[in-house]
Amino acid sequence: MNKSVGEVIELFISKKNEVARSNENRIELDTEGVLEDKFYAKDVERSVLLTSRESYELVAKNNIEIAYGALGENILIDYNPYELNMGAQLKIGEVVVEITQYCTICNHLSKLDTTLPILLKDDRGIFVKVVKGGFIQKGDKLYLL
Q1: Is residue 62 part of a domain?
Q2: Residue 44 domain flag
Q3: Which residues form the MOSC domain (predicted)?
Q4: Which domain covers residue 106, as residue numbers?
């Protein structure tokens, strides 16, 4: 196995009929996305959002305070994957994911702060699809495949 490039900091699920996102210690994924998440089996190319801690650091440098999870991510890592090419694969815990697209800016960010959509235009996160399912938990190592 290659050397670890980072690790999982936080995990989140957006549950149906709940406003607040659920911070989890462990999540289960299969080829349809994150089990129990409201986006599960909706669009496998966009069902899992991976975000870097660097996105939150960028926001903080601009004097905006938001909590982890506010960017809508399922998996928050301490590695910046935004320069990786589409199709690149990562192993996180038991799970293998493949980058499908960069996250587009959505309107809910402007509800947090009107400057967020512009500030995070290229730094909000990446969508991944699940190639090999399993469990991911906080502290799991991240590997480039």
Answers
A1: yes
A2: yes
A3: 21-145
A4: 6-144
Q: What is the mean pLDDT of residues 33-39?
A: 94
Q: Which helix (H) or strand (E) holds 139?
A: none
Query: What are the pLDDT digits (tens) for 51-68?
Result: 999 999 999 999 999 999
DSSP-based three-state secondary structure for 55: helix
Contact 112, 47 (CB under 8 A): no
- Give the pair of three-digit tokens for residue 138: 């906080």
Residue 1, domain member (yes or no): no
Report pTM.
Answer: 0.94
For residues 33 and 46, the model is more confident at 33
Residue 107 lies in a domain: yes
Domain count, the chain: 1
User: CATH number for the domain including 78?
Assistant: 2.40.33.20
Residue 21 structure tokens: 């996102």
pLDDT value, residue 53: 96
End-to-end CA distance of the chain: 9
> What percentage of the chain carries pLDDT values higher than 70?
99
How far is residue 134's CA from residue 110's CA, in Å, rounded to a whole number? 34
